[in-house]
Amino acid sequence: MALLEISVVPVGTDSPSISSFIAEACREAKRNGIKFDVTPTATVMEGDLPALLNVAHQMHQAAFHAGSQRVVTNIAIDERRDKDLSMENTVRTVRNEI
User: Fold this and answer.
1) pLDDT tens-digit profile of 57-92?
2) In what order do the strands lie in the sheet with 2-11?
3) What is the distance between the alpha carbons of residues 37 and 46, in angstroms, rounded to a whole number?
4) Does the predicted model carry a pTM greater than 0.85?
5) CB 8 within 8 A of CB 21
6) Under a CB-based contact definition with an 8 Å cutoff, are residues 42 and 7 in contact?
7) Integer Cα distance of 68 and 81 in angstroms
8) Helix%, strand%, coil% for the chain, nearest 5
9) Burial zone of 40 (CB within 10 Å; 0-12 exposed, 13-18 middle, 19+ buried)
10) Which of 25, 43, 63, 72 is buried deepest, with most CB atoms within 10 A?
11) Distance between CA atoms of 59 and 57, rounded to whole angstroms?
12) What is the largest CA-CA distance in the chain?
């Protein structure tokens, strides 16, 4: 199980707002049945790493399909093999330590 954080940034759009591009990218995760959470600066997904990487590629391509001529995508992967990993448990663990 893995967590993948992705930030898809369309460059050179007609507007400073990129929410429509992000929404289109997130629709790819939803269409693929991937659990995800949108944060103010990125989207975090949870699942099997090969499936997440496939959806990340689709999300990157979605920005082009939505009209961007250039897209910068940043990805961070957190994969554990010693125990189950989930978005909720990861957040809960940190919050319990605050």
Assistant:
1) 999 999 999 989 999 999 999 999 998 889 999 999
2) 35-38, 43-47, 2-11, 70-79
3) 9
4) yes
5) yes
6) yes
7) 37
8) 40, 30, 30
9) exposed
10) 25
11) 5
12) 46
11: left (phi over 0), alpha (psi -120 to 50) or beta: beta
Which CATH number characterizes residue 40's domain? Answer: 3.30.70.930
Pair 55, 32: CB distance under 8 Å: yes
Question: pLDDT of 47-65, one tens digit each?
Answer: 999 999 999 999 999 999 9
Question: Could you list the residue range(s) of the whole structural domain that residue 79 is in?
Answer: 2-97
Contact call for residues 65 and 78 (beta carbons, < 8 A): no
User: What string of H, E and C letters represents the secondary structure of 25-56?
Assistant: HHHHHHHCCCEEEECCCCEEEEECHHHHHHHH
Q: What residue has token string 């600066």?
A: 41
Structurally, the chain folds into a number of domains equal to: 1
CA–CA distance, 5 with 45 (Å, rounded to integer): 6
